[in-house]
Design brief:
heterodimer, A: about 600 residues, alpha/beta, Rossmann fold, 4 domains, eight-stranded mixed beta sheet, six-stranded mixed beta sheet, 21 strands, about 35% helix, globular, B: about 290 residues, mainly alpha, MetI-like fold, 11 helices, elongated
Amino acid sequence: MSTAAEAIEAERAPAVRAPVLAIRDLAVTFPGAVKALRGVTLDIAPGEIVGLVGESGSGKSVLGLAALGLLPPAATITGSVLLDGRQMVGTSDEERRLARRRYAGAVFQDPMTSLNPTMKVGRQVAEAAGSTEAAIEALERARVPEPRRRAGQYPHELSGGLRQRVMIAMAIAGSPDLVVADEPTTALDVTVQAEILALLTTIRDETGSSILFVTHDLAVAAELADRIAVLYGGRLAEIGPAADVLHRPCHPYTVALMAARLRGDSPRATMLPTLEGEPPDPRALPPGCPFAPRCPLAEPACDAALPEPEAAPTHDGLVACLHAGESAGARLRVREAPSPRGDPEGAATLDVGVPLGQKRGPTGATPHPGPALLLTDITKAFGKGDRRRAVVDGLSLEVPAGGSLALVGESGCGKTTTLRMAVGLENPDGGEIHVGPGGSPQLVFQDAGASLTPWLTVGEMLEERLRTDGLDAPARRTRSVEVLQMVGLPADVATRRPRQLSGGQRQRVALARAVAVPPALLACDEPISALDVSLAATVLNLLMNLRAELGMAMLFVTHDLAAARFIGDRVAVMAGGRIIEEGPSEDILTNPQHPHTAALVGAIPRFEAHA
Amino acid sequence: MGVAEPVTLGGALPLRRRAIPSLKVGRLEKIGLAVLALTTIGALAAPLLAPYAPTLPVSAGPLLKPSAAHLLGTDDLSRDIASRVLYGIRSSWFSAIAVIASGVLIGGLIGLVAGFKGGWVDTVLMRITDLFLALPGPILAIAIVASLGPSLPHTLLAVGVVWWPWYARIVRGEVRALMVRPHIDAARLARIGRMRLAFRHALPGALPAVLVTASLDVGNLVLTLAGLAFIGLGAPPPAPELGSMVAQGLPYFFGQPWVCLAPAVAIFVLAFAANLAGDGIRDLLRHT
């Protein structure tokens, strides 16, 4: 444990470039034996941006909170966290609060819940900055346009991007040495995300603040981080210079994350590489390497003991893997390129290079001629009186039978409303909707978990869906097991309720119900935007396979052009309630015509580590 | 300063939800639940437990002090107070349950229809509900008892008439909130029939709120009914009714205080235990 002497020492010798944040062997356990962190050591140098990457439950947010000394009192914390030499573990609330106030700033995912809705933003920033003038200056530094006018507004009057800028202004108002940014761009549109990432880099360059950037998205971390730390099961899997971790990864998990990431040029005719299984449950972690159960290279030794971080063979960083010395990364990466099936070394492959379904396009059912969905000049407005606002405004689109169309646009462009009208959950004010023959259109919701009735079992929900198909009870039971198998779930899932399932399983159950009676059209509302990278690839593969198997048409709504290109034969870009550009998916990405489309294409994170 | 103190971390939510220490039911609430359980058993078994008939005088005499033969003494009409209190608890308890059951049934159904249908159906049903809510319970009880004659069912009818609107409001609010959730849309898309949608996909979501309200209402009703009985709006004598027993024992307060204190304490314990138990049930539901 650190002493006051140490703290004084740190203050006396500011010339020594001591790390701004020094974490030593940090372990955090929550009640219920939830092991969020298990011995993490990490330094952040002055002016450095460290990207902390991990899937949900990896402990990344807990690490961010620990750095700020903000863990709830119920948490058991061991190890040491020095923020500018001030101990943040085991010290009093007051000491931690003072250290935080002086040395740290924080930006969280949802600025709406972090900002006080009843207070003008200027006053809120002034609380952190000390004076109104300092607040205006902080807003300026956060590149808030017209800072004086904005300071007089309430949070709800600002757009999501502006709110996040206000949060950033609050975080940097006291010229902190460290800014902890926890998923600050996850809730934002891609173009806004790109702006915020650029802003954070600029702020680091201008003020010299270090940034701990917590994210689930490797590509986002790649945009601004100097170093990337990959967290898995509460342990550091790999840490190193951003370019090295991205392009010469050593840990099989990092390799897999890179491979599973959907890019603008992922081959469309093959499955995306995926990782089997799901992230470990922090309540029941294996004794050995937490990644071993999913690792293609795992051997008995991996399950025996936790691997300690050691110097990585391919880069100037650390990796915690028994196979690192054998250059595990290289062994895996070989197989990333689509290889002919029947590869002799098939044992250690990630699931790559396997053709999708039988073949691309409809096979299972003969599609009827004519479109599966035809929207003609659709309009829809919400609100009353003066506040009535057209959300969809003269929109026309066509999804051919068995074809797939990806509808891309930023939040508020009307894409979800269009989708809801297409499946009949909403009626248009004007225009015509024509649905082709076959099973009624189904929708896969953005939040698959919320689309399942919490108190019903999976079996009850599936059988309920099959009732409408005129099957008798035993036939319904058989069919629901079949459907579960189709989405890769064991039959015993039928007896469980949604909250007993993992996120990935819930997603599959939602899909199973949507295709239990094969629909002519499957509409998907951002089905992967809330998912971890490895899970997203699995879901995309599953969707593509189901589409090929059942011959259904697909309307896929997303804000992610890379996903749109992968899943859609054609892509339609939507803005302001209408389609502004439509064409074959490859053309849209390589040769966007409309400036808005070009901006969306430009905002796709590209894994070019800036370091 | 860098951090607004109440921190919500979007990314950390799944973990934090798991991390929240599972708050168990507090000790006081446990005692409440235990007392309520004992009372329920006592109420059910009153005919077996009561040493004497509640409405008949015993030979020992009136206004006797508590003794081994008469644990709580006897009242002015030489009846065994312990037996009367036991029966009184039974009657209070069952009356409360009856009013709540009718409230849950009528209010629940009206609330479900209003919340599920929305639109003008909702408006009409909720205005009717408001109308009933505006009726003053005790005055209505006086009116009903005055016109139909004093009897427990009449009192219960009067209380029941003003009690259900609360449940209608709660169920309607919960159902309306549920109706905009994705699982209802998903069920609609799965072509699930309207009845099934209402009773299987919407109504169960309102159950926890109703259960909590109902359990907290028991204490409320025990007090309300005792109060009505105290002013003579309960079961007519000689029925063993806690409220009327207190009223009846009041003249002897200074000489033989046990006559009115025994039923008064019983009312207090019953209401207090019911409230504690209600809190306990709420905690249980919130944390599972």
